[in-house]
Amino acid sequence: MPPAAIGAVVVVVIILVIIVGLAASIPRSTSPPGSGAVVVTQVVVTSPDNACGFQGDNQPGFNADSGAWKTLLLAPNSAAIPCTISSVSTNTSGFHAVASVPMSFTMFPQILGITVICPSAYNGALNVTIT
Predict the structure, then answer these.
(1) Secondary structure (3-state) at 24
(2) Residue 88 to residue 97: CA distance in whole angstroms
(3) What is the spatial distance between Cα 114 and Cα 107, in angstroms, rounded to a whole number?
(4) Rounded Cα distance, 76 and 47, in Å
(5) To 5 degrees, how large is the angle CA 36–CA 37–CA 40?
(6) What is the sign, positive or negative, of the torsion defined by CA atoms of 51, 56, 60, 66?
(7) 64: left (phi > 0), else alpha (psi -120 to 50), else beta?
(8) CB of 84 within 8 A of CB of 47?
(9) What is the pLDDT of residues 96-116, one digit of tens each?
């Protein structure tokens, strides 16, 4: 082989070694995203005062990784507008619910966003209370 061809082969080999080394250093997940240890079978929405018509507005469940933050988007019953939400909470062990409240609904459609912080592991229904 001519010296120029040998030099090109060496460069290609060095580049391949670098690429393989970088690929090997990328951390691997043991499970695909969203298939983690948190399995919420249903979001059970209660509202003792039926604030904005949310009483019984149950939502589908979700899967999440440990400690994940999930956002629930709920729309009030249009017949209940205008209305105000003053608090959002959960009594399900390990979960935390966060929302910007008080929130006034003056027209339809408006959406209530609730961020749920998941525990390390769970399987069952998630209770969310809105007043």
Answers:
(1) helix
(2) 7
(3) 19
(4) 12
(5) 95
(6) positive
(7) beta
(8) no
(9) 998 888 988 888 778 888 999
